[in-house]
């Protein structure tokens, strides 16, 4: 299976976070605080020009494409 990131995700389809591909601990902590970590379901609500809107648990968040690229699904 190819590596797929949130940037490649189909809108409104639920995925499971497989891995957070970053060495930036601050970034990992930030994502964890949103409820975005391995094994958690995540849905891309919409793709924007430089970011995407994701739904995690009961919240919606706008994350930039660099961050979306680090979240493997």
From TrEMBL:
SUPFAM superfamilies: C-terminal domain of transcriptional repressors. Pfam families: FeoA. Transmembrane segments: none annotated. The keyword Transferase does not apply. Keywords: Iron. Residues 4-73 form the Ferrous iron transporter FeoA-like domain. The keyword Glycoprotein does not apply. GO terms for molecular function: transition metal ion binding. InterPro entries: Fe-transptr_FeoA-like, FeoA_core_dom, Transcriptional_repressor_C. This is Ferrous iron transporter FeoA-like domain-containing protein.
